Amino acid sequence: MKILHLIDSGGLYGAERMLISLALQQQKQGCNPVILSIGKPAIVTKPLEEEAIAQGLQLKAWRMKPGLNIREINKIVKWAQLENFDVLHSHGYKFNILLGLLPKLKRKLPTVATLHGYVKSQLFSKMWLNEKLDRIMINRLEHIVLVSSYMLDDLPESYKHKENLTVINNGVDIESIKEKSNLPADSDICSFSRKFENVVLGVGRLSPEKGFSKLITAFEKVLKKKPSTGLIIVGQGKCENDLHKLCENLQITNNVYMPGYCQNVPALMKKSTVLVMPSKTEGLPIAALEAMALCVPIISTQVGELPKLLDHGRAGILINSNHEAFENVLSLEIIKLLEDDSLKNTIRRRQKEIISNKYSIEIMACQYLKLYMRLKK
After folding, report:
1. Nearest to 55, CA basis, from 47, 44, 65
2. pLDDT in tens, 35-59
3. Whole-prediction pTM
4. How many CA atoms lie within 13 A of 88 on its CB side?
5. Could you tell me which CATH class the domain 2-171+360-376 is placed in?
6. Which of 59, 138, 223, 271 is at 20 to 30 A from 34, Cα to Cα?
7. Which CATH number fits domain 174-358: 3.40.50.2000, 3.40.1180.10, 3.30.70.270, 3.40.640.10?
8. Sequence-separated (6 or more) residues with CB below 8 Å from residue 80
């Protein structure tokens, strides 16, 4: 089975890490996955491309002008046909839209679109428009995959009972994550974490929907009770300067480190006491799965698939994202987890059971392979 994964990534976040893990597992299955990564002509390389090459995956870097570039998507599809691919697998709205614009007879190859989750975009913004187009165009593709059952709520009612829609939960390579966690972390991060008794971790895009400003505000309250605590927030995004200013205003810069992009998140997780996910919206985040694979306790908002993943509070701590005193509640829950070893151990035992039985990369890859084979018939 020869699979062409199509993506335009802006970093190495959850969707990208999931794709890398899936492609590696597909190699173990005896398949031939290739990642085609697009970007603007001026871009030399992208984090996803570097990681794919480092992992020994086949990569096709394709540079093209952004927008509704019908000419280039035609070239990509013709190239895929000449290379005898069996299936096209789209990851993200850009390829969903471009492939949806092509008639099925022109695509020829069966096309799968995995929806990794929608961002709550500002009304009439460019991203809002792209998401609207995405919801229309995915219906023109052969099959739609959601990474969590919660995402059904984000789709129009007419989509929810379609035969060409499947839920395949994100999965992670547990052994690979453990191996990565034993590799050296970034030296600056190590130097920072060694200063503190406990480290609170946040992972994700530095964008409003991730709620990191609320985490920082809550962390300032944590420091009053637990002064030997550090906060590391990994990621890049438009909110970076605002988050730095917030730390300065709260006078907690010595206890907060924002290193930007981090290549080895599992190694950082291993040095952390708790992962906090204060998001306003999520699907099934890879960071949460990685933390569970390493038995790192999680405090999360009750959004997306997270309540189900955390067994409704038995494998982590859940907080209502709309709570009017959210920052106060979050700070109290962080403090409780830092102080209660029995609670941490109980959470870790349940995490280990859930991640092995429901969210492994082997389960996810087998479900995708069955889907590909069904479409190929």
Report:
1. 47
2. 999 999 999 999 999 999 999 999 9
3. 0.79
4. 28
5. alpha beta
6. 138
7. 3.40.50.2000
8. 4, 88, 109
